[in-house]
Specification:
single chain; 694 residues; alpha+beta; Penicillin-binding protein 2a (Domain 2); Beta-lactamase; 3 domains; 7-stranded mixed sheet; 5-stranded antiparallel sheet; 23 strands
């Protein structure tokens, strides 16, 4: 049975609705009619501006959760020009601010290239100052030949800096006004910041002196919690003109990644800025502040790096380079730098990428000019951006090639007499080793054996093919920019001739035909022992070593562990192991090669200097690579190893430029092996860390 709605209830509802409507009508009448003129005046006198609320950049961590890079809150002094100009005394406020900064020795931004007092002349300009001055003159339709005196007169007139201000005061005021106006002449310039990272004393000065339109705005700068891995972590800086197009949704004053991880994961680290709305009344007082859009912090990036191992590697590498140089006379060449790579054999994760010389990220902005001009190139990440001749570390590739084409088997022996003859040429071995199979040849680094392998290959193409499968001269898969390197051979030289015939002719001379290159048997012999023109990055050598340890499974190198939200509550991306290719060779070939590397550690070329760790067997190979200079003290020193031999976990590559014998690099690997297998404490007092090379 349906319920009957009583008429009384309906009447009550309508009465209530009528009362509510009446209240709204009365309020609206009061606002628009009774007080309409008052509210109109307020709205006309109030000025509302929107400012960007900078989002916190994401943090960077190592594989163990050690914080590497975060943000530090700083206070900057900026201008609300609308509020300042409404006071009618903008010039007086600016001068008071300048004098307050000078009294506290606070640097402020003034790039006007005119002397600080009369008689006014142009100062010596940087390229940037000159570009900005020309843009200002052009924008304001002034002659480019305008003298400094004429320009000062124009600035005083334009900005109404009257005669009550002396020359020095007038110059100070127009310097700041010039900076503000430059933003109209060059729209891509970031918003003007008077002073950055100011202390509480100056903030108090601004507040106590009622400097209307002068604002303290909170920003952030990168804070570095490690002195290591500078070339990997990278730098940030203000956007340039090209980047304003790339990051079109960023504000003009945005800081972006310029190199390393900061650049690679810019989109993850940057975050999304918010918006703050500020209302100022006719007196210049702030009467309202609200947030119209909340800032969204950037995501956190976790790397595969072990920062403690990185510290061990950088310290050991620098100490060894300094030791080598200390032992050389003034007439000898100095070791100029080096690189260390440590990889996780099972995942391809990079545990360490040390490059020497290096620099300190915390002082990078102050030292950028000297770092850029340093002939030893501290800004260069040698682990992935520099290629080296591999020397005898290439012999494992030659051994696998010979085994794969059936030239030898694992027990085939070659008798080393110390001199290998081919045609009219004689090639020397480092000793007279007698009969050696592939295991012994690797252990003693017998050149004679590998010359013979090369002489019977039939074609260098066989060597090129196996090298490519092992990752030499190929992309490693690392997320950072890397040099590809080259495997010397007919394929490489033909490609070079086609792409740059003039350079090819300069290096290799004339050839028989347009599509042909001269390739002699001697070239193959040199390539087989890692000499010639083969050039690989230390990271490629590490990947090559991992592939051998994994019996031919080549994994992609990676520096990324995962990406998480700013509060680490959610994993947004987790790196997985990627197989790039499988080498077409049976396991017993790799077993023989690894046995040769193990015996090199036991009684061969590595045995006298390699560390002995209880319960850990090592497989290794030394290398000495000739450079174009030809002197012994300009040979590059290389050492590669993996451990444990019977359960491979990490692969290590050490290169020292002009380090001479390969054995000179072993001590660097020793320190890393000791850290990894004993987890020994790093001695913070070790001298020489992050020191610049002479």
């Amino acid at each position: 049975m349906e319920k009957i709605v009583k008429p009384l209830r309906i009447t009550i509802i309508f009465v209530l609705l009528a009362l509510i409507l009446t209240v709204y009508v009365i309020a609206l009448y009061d606002i628009q009619i009774v007080q309409g003129e008052d509210y109109l005046e307020i709205s006309q006198n109030n000025v509302t501006t929107s400012t960007t609320v900078e989002a916190s950049r994401g943090d960077i961590y190592d594989r163990n959760g050690e914080l590497l890079v975060s943000n530090k809150a700083i206070n900057n002094i900026t201008f609300n020009w609308t509020a300042m100009s409404m006071t009618g005394d903008a010039n007086g406020i600016i001068l008071a601010l300048i004098r307050g900064a000078e009294a506290r020795e606070i640097a402020y931004q003034d790039s006007l290239p005119i002397t600080s007092d009369s008689p006014f002349t142009y100062t010596e300009m940087t390229e940037t100052q000159e570009m900005r001055l020309k843009a200002y003159l052009t924008y304001n339709k002034l002659d480019e030949d305008t003298s400094a005196v004429e320009f000062m007169a124009y600035l005083r007139s334009t900005y109404k800096v009257d005669a009550s201000y002396g020359g020095a005061d007038a110059r100070a005021i127009v310097g700041v006004r010039y900076e503000l106006s430059l933003r109209y002449a060059i729209p891509s310039l970031p918003a003007y910041v008077f002073a950055e990272d100011v202390g509480t004393d100056f903030i108090a000065f601004v507040g106590e002196n009622g400097l209307t339109g002068v604002e303290v705005t909170e920003s952030s700068t990168r804070q570095y919690h490690t002195k290591y891995a500078a070339q990997i972590l990278g730098t940030i800086g203000l956007m340039d003109e090209e980047e304003t197009e790339k990051y079109a949704d960023y504000p003009m004053n945005a800081y972006v990644g310029k190199s390393g991880i900061e650049l690679l994961y810019e989109s993850e680290l940057h975050g999304t800025n918010g918006t703050q709305v500020t209302t100022v009344n006719a007196d210049g007082a702030v009467v309202g502040v609200s947030t119209s859009k909340e800032a969204q912090p950037g995501n956190n990036v976790y790397l595969t790096l072990d920062i403690k191992m990185q510290e061990v590697a950088e310290t050991a590498l620098n100490n060894k380079i300094n030791e080598i140089n200390a032992g050389r006379s003034s007439g000898q060449n100095k070791a100029t730098g080096g690189a260390v790579v440590v990889m996780d054999i099972q995942t391809g994760g990079v545990l360490t990428m040390a490059s020497a010389p290096t620099y300190d990220l915390s002082t990078y902005s102050e030292e950028i000019a000297s770092l850029s001009e340093d002939s030893n190139k501290p800004l260069l990440n040698r682990t992935i951006q520099q290629t080296y001749s591999p020397g005898s570390t290439f012999k494992m590739c030659t051994a696998l090639t010979a085994l794969s084409i059936g030239e030898i088997n694992t027990v085939t022996t070659v008798s080393c007499t110390g001199l290998y003859h081919i045609g009219d040429y004689t090639y020397k071995c480092m000793g007279t080793h007698g009969a050696q199979n592939v295991v012994g040849a690797l252990a003693y680094s017998c050149n004679y054996f590998f010359y013979d392998m090369a002489n019977h290959l039939g074609s260098v193409t066989q060597l090129e093919n196996i090298a490519a499968q092992l990752g030499l001269g190929q992309s490693t898969g690392i997320e950072l920019y890397e040099e590809k390197g080259v495997m010397d051979g007919v394929t490489y030289r033909k490609a070079l001739k086609a792409s740059d015939p003039e350079y090819f002719a300069e290096v290799y001379g004339e050839t028989y035909g347009e599509d042909e290159v001269n390739w002699y048997d001697g070239y193959t012999l040199n390539a087989a022992i890692g000499q010639g023109d083969s050039r690989f990055t230390p990271l490629q050598l590490a990947g090559y070593l991992c592939t051998i340890a994994n019996n031919g499974t080549r994994l992609s190198a990676t520096i990324l562990e995962d990406i998480k939200t700013y509060d680490d509550s959610q994993v947004l991306y987790e790196q997985t192991t990627e197989v790039l290719n499988e080498v077409d060779a049976p396991d017993d070939y790799f077993t023989a090669i690894k046995q040769g590397m193990y015996e090199s550690t036991q009684y061969g070329t590595s045995s006298s200097n390699i560390i002995k760790i209880d319960g850990v067997r090592l497989a290794s190979k030394t290398g000495t690579a000739q450079t174009t200079a030809g002197d012994k003290d300009t040979d590059n020193s290389l050492f590669v190893c993996f451990a444990p031999y019977d359960d491979p976990q990490i692969a290590i590559v050490v290169v020292i430029e002009y380090g001479a014998a390969g054995s000179n690099s072993i001590s660097v690997a020793n320190d890393i092996l000791d850290y990894y297998f004993t987890k020994g404490e790093v001695d913070d007092s070790v001298a020489g860390e992050n020191t610049m090379l002479p």
